[in-house]
Amino acid sequence: MSKASYPKPTARRFRVYAFDPRASLAPETALINRAVISLPYEENYESPLGAGPTNEYIEVVDFDAPARLFYAPIDPNHPDLLPEYGLWPDEGSPQFHQQMAFAVAMKTIKGFENALGRKVLWASSLSSQRDAYIQRLRIYPHALAEPNAYYSPEKTALLFGYFRDSSDLGQGLPGGWVYTCLSHDIIAHETAHAILHGMHRRSIEPTGIDTLAFHEAFADIIALLQHFTMTDVVAHQIAASGGRLRMDSLLSDIAGQFGEATRIGKSLRSGLDRKVDPLTGRLAPPDPTLYAKTDEPHGRGAILVGALFDSFLTIFENRTRDLMRLATGNSVPTGAELPTELVHRLAREAGKAAEHLLRMCVRGLDLLPVTDLTFGEFLRAVITADMDLIPEDMACYRVILSDAFRRRGIFDRGWPSMAPESLRWDGPDHVFPEASFASLLSSLDLVPQFRREDIAKQERKNRRAVHKWLVIADEGNPDSAEDWERLLGVRFYRDAPYSIRRNDQGFPAIEVHSARIARRTGPNGRETRELFVEITQQRGGYFALADQKAAEKPKAKMGKPDFVMRGGSTLVIDLTDGSLRYTIRKRVDDDKRLEALRQWCLSIRDSNLAATYFGVDAAREPFALAHRS
Q: Which of 310, 405, 492, 596 could form a disulfide with 410 if both were Cys (CB 3.0 to 4.6 A apart)?
């Protein structure tokens, strides 16, 4: 009798902690801390190191560096584990540590891909070839014997630490071990760093006060919003709070066990920056002066997190106001016990609101400036991307988002208004020569690709095509050079300031960092297919104005610059009709930008932030010191 043939499973499911091991120690949260993550089924991938689990995106390498030993890898497809959803949560099992880090990281990756409309690619390290294809992000669950975890651009890896619990008696287990790879929030946070760096290679450079702060804030809000994808957990917390999500809780905290074990507080950070007055029951307004006087990356990032999380809570309250009124007679939660059916309906609405805001934020990443990002520019990018895909803002989500930023003083000088229509990026202020632009599109490979390696090859090919087009675009008509330079924010000819880095022929060197294709579908069926191109140039900056003037002169022989300024533009091209939608530009020859960057570098050069931004390892490992501090 022949052996029976069965269809392969459609999914692999993994048991994880919904939060971290601490939540399993309290009777009221132990049951809800057991979560299951469902991922598409994959055959086993062979890892070069014999490590596991491994797939197309991730390779878990469980080498315990402090102890100098390898832990046996888990096989997620083993017949004993596959039907059981993997191992049960176990703090003492290195194999469960591998399972949890893998599952949460993949959940984060899939969330990004659903919003972006394309697959995630990793950035190559600064010491490797720029065009090298990095197939897998490595995860080291036991890399450090310290209270730290960070994304390493140099290793293209996530490094998680473990340490002794120093919490007070009655909280954790003083003297016990705490593993950062068992924190849902920390895994999602570090994975978000890696994805953001893969999208924007220069985003880790300290070119302004908001750069590292944005990285930290964006990673935090991803971790926070992922809380609300776990419906059972959300339902439990809604029932416990009577529907009041603005209260301190597991849902609003980030890395609770880590915060307690390191004596930071009851969590590492919180999404709430507005407290409820116990006497009046009203929300206190946010501090609009905090943004202007906070410079530490995590502290500054917390302001952006507060604006985004406050927006989510407002969206949730607006979506559920009619439900609350019908069920309880009050349009806002009073803290009273809610019917079970209402609790589960509210939990589903919270999940929808979180997913919608997460998609808005992730889509906005494609419309960021190439350098010197500010929080206000991130708001403009999010609103522009959302307006392109969903023209009618029937639920006023964009108004809610803009209002949350305004009340925290997050805006840029020169804005005429904070109405969403005014914040949308402007279209190009110069017309492309039609023939030249057509030659660019005809030289690009726009055939849809589905394998990540093929996508990376296609992008590399298209970057080279864009670079060639830029170099020869004006050879036949030098008189139009000024228009091209104004449009793209870069300089083409030898008369440009000599502080701009030159190529071997003596012309200003131009870099094309990306040429990404994205295809997205909105909730109303509206579809967009766009090409996002990032073009940059590098300019050396000097603290002494005399040195700066000398560096601008032809054939100047200067030493290493004191700092680097970049300029250029993000081009957004509509592939359905070949039109240029936006040029998000920051000019490389803008002396006001150069002076602003000089003053910022000088202001922190002698401060306690100097090592974070300009230390020996800051260029290669910007998150190692920032997360440790």
A: 405
